[in-house]
Specification:
Elements (H helix, E strand, L loop, with lengths): L2 E5 L6 E2 L15 E4 L1 H7 L2 H4 L31 E3 L1 H7 L4 E5 L9 H14 L4 E5 L3 H13 L2 E7 L4 H9 L3 E5 L3 H14 L5 E2 L8 H5 L1 H9 L7 E5 L4 H16 L8 E7 L4 H8 L25 H10 L3 E5 L1 H15 L5 H15 L9 E5 L19
Helix pairs in contact: 4-5, 5-6, 9-10, 13-14
Protein name: Threonine synthase
Keywords: Lyase, Pyridoxal phosphate
GO biological process, one term: isoleucine biosynthetic process
């Protein structure tokens, strides 16, 4: 392992990586830092292709020192699927979908859970707790069970029912909250404070290692494209960990010398029913203002005030990217249109990225001939209500 320390991106303070850490004293999330020169001396890009097809192929750039603590269900190395028919229709012939619905637990959250649980286990955690909009809780409950660790999950009542069932099946202590993820977060904060150190807060960006699992999406996209970067990466943004992680991965790859200086433009997609990042980006602000009355069919991005707002906005601006809000009606229409043309049922969050791609191409922000990668962050089968079958004829 080449992990050296944890760094605060806001105040610059360094923290030891061999101790459990949550936020910096200034309130910012912490970022894991590696001895990248040592990584470059120990492995070459060509060697990854000889390793198992999971995210642990990038072990030199991950934070788990002892392989005995690696907790895995085979997560990672999801396919890049070309979408020529739909892409041609919206003016992006080189449109590619990275399908995270094929990961264990049916969403990209398995990446963060695998690495986060593995590192927590290595550092002696016995029980984690976290608020969730659904998929993250299901993933962390599953991987905690795999690791022999306890899990307390707080979830809004309106979260997808399947995620509730996944948590129960994994033996987690599930609590339902009549409100949003922010309300669930306050409940978890009280639980952790009253636990006397017996419960570790594994909420979004409140520990530094979920991000390390999510960043492997960036490594995979580049490796799967033959160590070339696309022009644009479009990502559905709630807590924004994946977007921040992909941005971190791309900069690590550039520092390693494994990709050229030109990096993809990143796009954060939100719903018009909950768009705090879009509003802050458009106003040139460094922090978001909490969104009131948040609601969207893309439940995974219903985050009124993401903790990583500064990191999300930095990633967008450093990459010359943008942020766009799309309407729920269009999300559902594009979800069905894409499935009919390409045979892949996306989750609503993934479909939101298609809507964004269509608008950005129509407006000229995505230029002719550009290669665009869209993240489908979960299996469409987990959201059966997104496809209306009420008018199917009975014969």
């Amino acid at each position: 392992m080449h992990l050296t320390h944890l760094e605060c991106p806001r105040c610059g303070l360094h923290h030891p990586a061999d101790k459990l850490q949550n936020l910096c004293e200034c309130g910012s999330p912490l970022l894991a830092r590696y001895d990248l020169a040592a990584v470059a001396a120990s492995v070459t890009p060509e060697q990854f292709g000889l390793r198992p097809a999971d995210l642990w192929r990038y072990r030199e750039l991950l934070p788990v020192a002892d392989p005995r603590f690696v907790t895995t269900l085979g997560e990672g190395w999801t396919p890049l699927l070309r979408a020529p028919r739909y892409g041609h229709e919206i003016g992006i012939p080189d449109l590619i979908v990275k399908d995270e619905g094929l990961t264990p637990t049916g969403s990209f959250k398995a990446r963060g859970a695998a690495v986060g649980v593995s590192r927590a286990r290595e550092l002696g955690v016995e029980r984690i707790a976290m608020p969730t909009n659904g998929n993250a809780g299901a993933a962390w409950a599953t991987y905690a069970a795999r690791a022999g660790m306890g899990a307390t999950i707080a979830m809004p009542l309106d979260a997808p029912t399947i995620c509730r069932r996944e948590c129960v099946a994994a033996g987690a202590d599930l609590r339902l909250v009549d409100g949003l993820i922010s309300d669930a977060g306050r409940w978890v904060a009280r639980l952790v404070a009253e636990s006397g150190g017996r419960v570790f807060d594994a909420g979004t960006l409140r520990e530094p290692y979920r991000l390390e699992g999510k960043k492997t999406m960036g490594y995979e996209i580049v490796e799967q494209l033959g160590w070339q970067v696309p022009d644009v990466i479009i990502y559905p943004t709630g807590g924004g960990v994946g977007l921040i992680g992909i941005h971190k991965a791309l900069h690590e790859l550039r520092e390693l010398g494994w990709v050229e200086d030109r990096l993809p433009r990143l796009v954060a997609v939100q719903s018009t029913g909950c768009a705090p990042v879009v509003r802050a980006f458009a106003a040139g602000e460094e922090r978001v203002t909490p969104w009131t009355d948040a609601h969207t069919v893309a439940f995974g991005i219903t985050v009124p005030a993401p903790l990583g707002d500064e990191l999300i906005l930095t990633a967008l601006r450093e990459s010359s990217g943008t942020a766009i809000a799309v309407d729920d009606t269009e999300i559902l229409a594009d979800l069905r249109d894409f499935a009919a043309r390409e045979g892949l049922l996306l989750c609503p969050e993934g479909a939101a990225c298609l809507t964004a791609a269509r608008h950005l191409r129509a407006g000229g922000w995505i230029r002719p001939g550009e290669r665009v990668v869209v993240l489908n962050t979960g299996a469409g089968l987990k959201y059966p209500e997104t496809v209306d079958v009420s008018d199917v004829p009975l014969v």
